[in-house]
Design goal:
It is a single chain. It is globular, with a radius of gyration of 20 Å. It starts with 11 loop residues before the first helix and ends in a 5-residue tail after the last strand. Helix 2 runs antiparallel to helix 3, helix 2 packs parallel to helix 7 and helix 4 runs parallel beside helix 5. Helices cover 24% and strands 25% of the residues. By secondary structure, it is α/β, with parallel strands linked by helices. It has a six-stranded mixed beta sheet with strand order 7-6-5-8-9-10. Strands 4-11-1-13 form a four-stranded antiparallel beta sheet, with no helix packed on it. A four-stranded antiparallel beta sheet has the order 3-2-12-14, with no helix packed on it. It has seven helices and 14 strands. It has two domains: 97 residues, no CATH class; 214 residues, von Willebrand factor, type A domain (Rossmann fold).
Length: 339
């Protein structure tokens, strides 16, 4: 049965935690004003070298809501917390150059994030000129991997529609969005040529539904990607990040780096050579490991704040960690009320 993701940061997470389903029609939901809101905050912490920091205590964190410090009422740092992951694959013409490699990367991510344990679920959405739910929510990774093997790119790119589809047209898992958490992984370059929805619309919907978005960019170093800013906004505003398997780090230790421009792009390794294929495979392998680690190594914090007056606007959210040179990733704002 298909259901809409109507969970936000106020009443719906509490309903889900109690095993109840939210109303299918958002107009049935009460509008709260001057009420205490429980805010759920997934946080990722890395050191200056990008290594995950997984041994912090609640006392190491400070949370600020609209600039005012809040009291943390719940803290968890359990590894491998249950998640439901949406895998969104760019099937547009822009993905043809390295399609086979990113096809393998998608399968590797599914294999890493869906170990066959029923605590972990996933689904698959492909997007070209239109977005389509290819595999509905399942605990079985093979169903998703088998479908990925059969895909071929071609057409436009309806990225924003794909993100919207992920939050409206798939089967929910009991307990979302508290346990399991909701995650999207976009494998694409962020460009959009065919969506009916806008970036602003889907970003707000993602924030209201407690979704953290990550991206594996298919943009190759030496090439421009006009959608890169879209991908960054989707990820960074929701507490995720973008990894770049084909960025300049692949070539920075190569003699002649940047000295031999070519029509294929500004590569030190020539496209089609064994060296290039090896560097590409290594870059994708590292990116898969980084994303899988990010999804499974998060702290979960909660706090309660009284929201008065206009509750349908985004509220600023900031998390500070008591660790020198730490990099903290979390959502930048949240919505305390469902529309």
């Amino acid at each position: 049965m298909k259901a809409r993701w109507l969970a936000g940061l106020l009443a719906v997470p509490i309903l889900l935690a109690q095993g109840q389903q939210p109303p299918a029609d958002s107009s049935q939901l009460p509008r709260f004003r001057g009420q205490v809101t429980e805010v759920i905050v997934p946080v990722t912490v890395t050191d200056e070298k990008g290594r995950f920091v997984s041994n912090l205590e609640a006392s190491d964190f400070r949370i600020f809501d609209e600039g005012k410090e809040q009291k943390i009422v719940f803290f968890s740092r359990e590894r491998n917390q249950p998640v439901v992951v949406g895998f969104l694959l760019d099937l547009s013409n822009a993905s043809t150059r390295h399609w086979d490699k990113f096809q393998e990367a998608a399968q590797d991510l599914v294999f890493n994030l869906l170990p066959g344990d029923r605590r972990f679920s996933g689904y698959l959405i492909g997007y070209s000129t239109e977005a389509e739910l290819l595999v509905n929510t399942t605990h079985d990774p093979e169903k998703i991997m088998e479908r990925i093997r059969k895909l071929k790119p071609g057409g436009g790119a309806a990225l924003f529609d794909a993100v919207y589809l992920a939050m409206t047209e798939r089967t929910l898992i009991q307990g979302e969005p508290i346990e399991p958490r909701r995650v999207l992984i976009i494998i694409g370059d962020g460009h959009d040529t065919a969506s009916r929805k806008s970036l602003r619309e889907v970003l707000e919907l993602a924030q209201r539904n407690l979704v953290t978005i990550y991206g594996m960019s298919t943009k190759a170093f030496g090439f421009d990607a006009e959608g890169d800013e879209n991908l960054r906004r989707l990820c960074e505003d929701t507490g995720g990040r973008v990894v770049y398997p084909l960025d300049e780090n692949l070539y920075s230790d190569v003699s002649g780096y940047l000295s031999n421009p070519s029509d294929e792009g500004n590569y030190a390794y020539r496209v089609g050579t064994g060296q290039y294929a090896s560097a590409l495979a290594q870059g994708i392998y590292k990116s898969v490991a980084a994303l899988a680690g990010e999804v499974t190594t998060q702290y979960i914090l909660r706090y309660r704040v009284e929201v008065e007056g206009e509750t349908n606007r985004p509220r600023d959210l900031r998390v500070v960690v008591n660790l020198p040179n730490a990099v903290v990733r979390t959502r930048r704002y949240y919505y305390p009320e469902i529309r």
